[in-house]
Amino acid sequence: MEVRMSTFGSQRVLGRAVTGPQLGWMHPSMRDLLIGHLMQSEMERRRFLKRCGPEGFALAVSAAGGATGERRFPLLRTQGDWDAVQTRCESLVQGAERETLRSLSEALSEAVGALNDDEVDGLEGGRLGNLCRTFTRAVKAHLDGTVIPLELIRSYIALTVALEPLEPMLDLRTTWDSVAPSTEQALHEDDVGELEEWFELISLIWSVEPRLLRQLEFKSVYGPYWWTVSMLSRAH
Q: 26: closest CA among 18, 17, 35?
């Protein structure tokens, strides 16, 4: 049986198919009982980590569980637990919906942010860093060559900037092709409202991978019109 919890309470450097009944919601008190049981049973904990869904993964890396927030990474008690969740991480990314990937990325970012300076350089920080790298590399392999929502791009950037050395940026060429207008569109005032996504994508690329704008010949294609386009955007 796989227990999947759909709901549950509550910038640093650093398988096989599941069958059987699934539980989509769990009362917080029952959730705490489950966590307590899994914390005490290595066999059941390892089984859970190998089969958990996105919500279970987020629970495993949660940074403030328990009645007083003392349960950080409650299901990651040994190196074997970290190995299991790292393997499961790769499986979860494959075929996942964009929103699920964004949620997982944010869960990992919260986990990184919960570490203090000493912990970042310690054993726990190293384990979490390895998990984050596994996740970002799997996400990049899964999403490169596709149209990627801006919210997911932002969450990926937020997570990767916490890793040293930095992980490669997502390939945003296909995303660019899906939102970049022709120069005629860019100069038509009525279309400016539809260009907001493009403006935001430009800002994201400029902040983390400005070389891509050079490869896209942004300056030569849009340079002569950019002042007009930016003024129209501000007026809009």
A: 35
